[in-house]
Amino acid sequence: MARSTILIAENSFLIRKGLRSTLHSLENTEIVQSIDNKDDVCKIVNQIKPDILIINPELLPTNCPDLKRNFKNGNKLSLILISDQKNIKEELKADGYIHYLDGKNTILDLLQEILNEKNQNSITDKNADVISAREKNILKHIALGLTNKEIADQLFISIHTVVTHRKNITQKLGIKSVSGLTVYAILHKLISMDEVK
């Protein structure tokens, strides 16, 4: 699992220090920098490209109005706001919100949830590119319980071609059993649970 980087932008020294101390409990994360200056936010975020930006909305730069869009397009950054106004999360389309009065566990749970989601998306993206569109189609049929001949008949290809694709899929995914391939197909939304016999 890749190490996730976190950047904290908050003008209060105590809050920065407290957050840094709290977030040390998270595994596979690194706080790359703390910022207390509004003018540096855009530049530093674009240089460092952290996975998560925890920011006081007062430090949102006025010359970088759509902060999330600008930063997220490049590096899929998650935006977490520190505020006492809960509605600001929707207003700024943030991924999370920390209230000043939140306890340690609430903050850690929020961060862990976001990290889990990021890791899951990363695994899905990585695996999605592993097999070709044709192989995904073959895999879908395998997961639905069709034999090589049935797949060949449905896709108007030879059995030999199906077998070759099947070997390639097994090698690329490192999954040998039909049940394992079925689970993979469900997790990657190639088929739905309802389609499985």
Automatic annotation (TrEMBL):
The keyword Iron does not apply. Keywords: DNA-binding, Transcription, Transcription regulation. It comes from the Bacteria. SMART domains: HTH_LUXR. Residues 5-115 form the Response regulatory domain. Residues 124-189 form the HTH luxR-type domain. This is Response regulator transcription factor.
